[in-house]
Each structure stands twice: as structure tokens, then as C-alpha cells.
Design goal:
single chain, mainly alpha, two-stranded antiparallel sheet, two-stranded antiparallel ribbon, 8 strands, globular
């Protein structure tokens, strides 16, 4: 094709693409099951994305600044389980002008909604680039993988948005259920495909070792692959399960739920910890997958490819063999334990001889007035293996758009374990709550608990002991 004709074709295709996006200006377009394929060369897309990136990040920073106090204010003397990072304290969600937490707690949901007083930090948190979405990984993980493997996880269109103070310690410690006497077997290192054998040989079984290899092997993913619509500069081998679940915990990487369409309605999904997976019976924020095996197999076409099996086939999906590889993936994930909690007895209750009065008071609130134990059952690793709908939409007007995300009801979300919870900021399924104190204020309002200031402080102290 002559050069001028080819350029004309590209320009025409670009115009058609822009027409599609113009038609999709309605935040909830009627036909948005599949994404349009790119109509420009990768070089042009990359140049456009890089030019837009500073504004994209400023827009998201504006959302964060409106919602949160992002200052570095750790709880004195409280560290995460590896002992290398302090736990941030205080309520960081900002109140609307003229409101207090006590006045809000005294209002009905209808009154809060009608007066527009629900703190923005309690509403769904948008992806840093909602229209594009995809997995976004913190710089600590990106830098370490680049150093160890030479693999580049840095996107050219977006960066991770939250300050490092509100993410888990890195690398996280690793605790093996089969070897509790060993403590942290990571020895301060990040598991990668380059070191996993040397780090874990002698501690795990041959089946688990093979599962670990698979969990650390890069496979194509929507934004990290060989094709022209990737979001990394170089052709990429892809990502690994543990690129987000660092050392079987979490580094706070996020993407979007694969289970909702259209794109503007897909909510942000924070990476959960894999600690204590052996006691969890449902997996995925919406899918309610009923086994670790289901999760390990299905994630290759959901989290990896935004729930689009057609894109997965085109880019090179990994299909682990169900009765061999998938079982080994599950065996390894089920070997990871929670961090030690020396103040808890075998039934998940505080030992009065080890806990202080503030923590014991918090446990009483947790089991009683706070209603926490209705879902986070101590004897069941502080979960109930069920889905719950908090119906937060009672408190805000549905349909409002924030940085590209249409704020719709959350719907049923699975119960997350609270064991080792101080290690896992940010909180809630989309990371909208930065501290445990934020979580207490959120549930105090949503469940109309009417907790006193002392009860709130005690509840935080209790959760820090878990």
C-alpha cells in the first residue's frame, strides 16, 4: 500500500475510534461488552499516553487529596510483622465542611444522602485511569523485579497512586504453616523465579516447589505481553501471580474487577493477601469461586485479562492443567500461614494474661456492640466465608462520576480475614480506607453502631493485636 494511502487509512481509523469514544461519552454506554482494538501503531499510542500521563496522575492526586490526609503519621511503637515498617494511624478520611463524626453517626442514611455529607473517602475509589484500567504495580516491586529478572513492569501510561506509607512492608515476611518454628523464611528477600529454589529448598515439598515455580513464572497479561496494545514499552513475557501477591502477601497492587461491565462501572480491586488461604472457602470479590484450585485456574483469564477470554486467547493465555498444575498451585498457596499473634489463644480469643486492658476492651466491642464478629468470626480465622452487601448506596446519590468511575452500589463483597490485618493496608476491597481507624469510622456509620471515641480507639488496639 502506498505510504500516503496507508496514512490516510490510519487517520480514518483514528477518526472512527474517536467517534466511538465520543459515542461512549455516556458513562454507561449500552454496548460496551468488548473493548475496541487499537487503531494506531504502538509508537503513537505510547507517545499519546506518555504526553497525557502527567495530567492523568494529577487528576488522581486531586481525588486523593480531596479524600484523605496523606501525611506520614505512624502509630508510635507499632510495626508490621516483619518489623521494618510502621503502621499508620489516625482517621485519614476527610470530613465534609461543617460535619463531625459524631454528627454523621447521629443521622439517618437518607439524611446523609440528601445533604451530601457522606465523606468522599467512603465512596468507591476510582482506578488511576478508569477508561483503560489494568494492573498497576507499586514501584518497590517494579524496581526489585527489574533488578533480579530484567523484566519491566513499569507502564508508560500510569503509575501507582497511593503514597508508600499506606502500603504493606516490602518484601513481606513469609510464614509456613508446616514450619511455624522457622518464623519468617523470607529473611528479608523477595521471592522471584531467580531465587525461589535456593530460598525454599528443604522447607517445602516437591509438589509445593513446582507450584511455587508456576506462581513465579511470567505469563502474558492484558497490559504486559507481546502485542501492539500492551502498556509497557518492550515486548513483555508478562507477569506472575506473585508480582502482586508479593511473598504470598500483597504489595497493594490493584486492577479492576473482571466481573462488571461496562468499563466505567468496573470497580477498583485491591490485591488481597494469600496468608491463611487454607481456611478460606470462597475467592474473588464477586465470583465466589469455591476452591483455591478454581481461583488459580480462572484467574488466568480474569485478573490477567479483565475477564475477557477472547483477549486471553489472542495474547497467549496460560491454561494450567487442572489435575496436575492447578493442584500444585493450590498446594503451595495453602502452605502459607498468618503471622504470629502471641496474644491470641487457639480459639482466636485474647489471652487475658498477655493482652492489655485496651485490647481486651476492644475485643468486647468487637464481639458485642461493634457487631464485627457477626462476619469476622474469631474461631474461623476472623471470617465467615460468605458475601455481604453493606448497601452503602443508602448514603450517597448513585450515578455520580469520579475520575471516570460511575459510582454504583458495591453489591455483595466477600468477608476478608482480619488476622494480621495491620500488615495489609489499604483496606476494603478497593483500598478506599487507608487505616484501621478509617475502617472503624466507616462501619460505625454504615452499621449505625454509635461507638464512643474510647470504644473506637479500643477496637483499633484490638485489631493491631490480631
Amino acid at each position: 500500500m502506498p505510504g500516503t494511502a496507508r496514512i490516510s487509512l490510519l487517520v480514518g481509523a483514528a477518526a472512527a475510534s474517536m467517534a466511538w469514544f465520543s459515542a461512549a461519552a455516556d458513562p454507561l454506554p449500552p454496548s460496551a461488552t468488548y473493548r475496541p482494538l487499537p487503531t494506531l501503531p504502538l509508537s503513537a499510542v505510547k507517545a499519546n499516553d506518555e504526553a497525557e500521563k502527567p495530567q492523568v496522575m494529577r487528576d488522581q492526586q486531586s481525588v486523593l487529596d480531596q479524600r484523605y490526609d496523606l501525611s506520614n503519621n505512624p502509630i508510635p511503637g507499632v510495626m508490621m510483622s516483619g518489623g521494618r515498617k510502621p503502621v499508620q494511624g489516625g482517621v485519614r478520611v476527610k470530613l465534609p465542611a461543617g460535619a463531625t463524626w459524631d454528627t454523621l453517626a447521629g443521622m439517618s442514611p437518607d439524611e446523609v444522602r440528601q445533604r451530601g455529607l457522606l465523606p468522599p473517602g467512603f465512596t468507591p475509589l476510582p482506578h488511576v485511569k478508569q477508561a483503560t484500567g489494568g494492573q498497576v504495580i507499586p514501584n518497590s516491586q517494579i524496581d526489585e523485579i527489574r533488578t533480579q529478572e530484567g523484566r519491566n513492569l513499569r507502564r508508560f501510561d500510569v503509575d501507582f497512586d497511593l503514597p508508600d506509607t499506606f502500603t504493606p512492608e516490602f518484601p513481606p515476611p513469609i510464614f509456613l504453616s508446616g514450619h511455624p518454628e522457622l518464623g519468617d523464611v523470607s529473611r528479608g528477600r523477595l521471592l522471584t523465579i531467580k531465587n525461589y529454589y535456593e530460598m525454599m529448598v528443604g522447607f517445602i515439598t516437591p509438589v509445593q516447589m513446582e507450584g511455587l515455580r508456576l506462581l513465579l513464572t511470567p505469563f502474558p497479561q492484558e497490559e504486559f505481553n507481546q502485542t501492539e496494545d500492551r502498556k509497557v514499552e518492550d515486548q513483555s513475557l508478562g507477569i506472575t501471580c506473585l508480582d502482586c501477591h508479593s511473598n504470598f502477601h500483597t504489595n497493594a497492587a490493584f486492577h479492576q474487577t473482571p466481573d462488571v461491565r461496562p468499563q466505567a462501572a468496573r470497580f477498583r480491586l485491591d490485591t488481597v493477601s494469600l496468608r491463611g488461604l487454607f481456611n478460606q472457602q470462597i475467592h474473588g470479590s464477586k465470583r465466589s469461586l469455591r476452591s483455591v484450585e478454581d481461583f488459580s485456574e480462572f484467574e488466568q483469564r480474569t485478573a490477567y485479562f479483565n475477564g475477557d477470554h477472547m483477549s486471553a486467547q489472542r495474547k497467549g493465555v496460560n491454561l494450567p492443567e487442572r489435575h496436575d498444575q492447578t493442584a500444585m498451585l493450590a498446594q503451595m498457596q495453602n502452605a502459607i500461614d498468618f503471622p504470629p499473634a502471641p496474644k491470641l489463644d487457639p480459639a482466636g480469643r485474647l489471652d487475658p494474661s498477655k493482652a492489655n486492658e485496651r485490647e481486651l476492651a476492644g475485643e468486647r466491642v468487637f464481639l458485642g456492640k461493634g457487631r464485627c464478629a457477626e462476619c469476622h468470626i474469631p474461631a474461623l480465622s476472623f471470617l465467615d466465608n460468605n458475601m455481604h452487601d453493606l448497601k452503602l448506596e443508602r448514603f450517597y446519590e448513585v450515578g455520580h462520576t469520579v475520575n471516570g468511575l460511575v459510582q454504583l452500589p458495591d453489591g455483595p463483597i466477600k468477608t476478608f480475614t482480619l488476622r494480621g490485618i495491620k500488615d495489609s493496608p489499604p483496606y476494603l476491597h478497593d483500598g478506599r480506607l487507608l487505616t484501621l481507624a478509617d475502617c472503624v469510622e466507616f462501619f460505625n456509620l454504615v452499621l449505625s453502631l454509635k461507638l464512643t471515641a474510647d470504644e473506637k480507639d479500643s477496637l483499633v488496639a484490638y485489631m493491631l493485636a490480631l
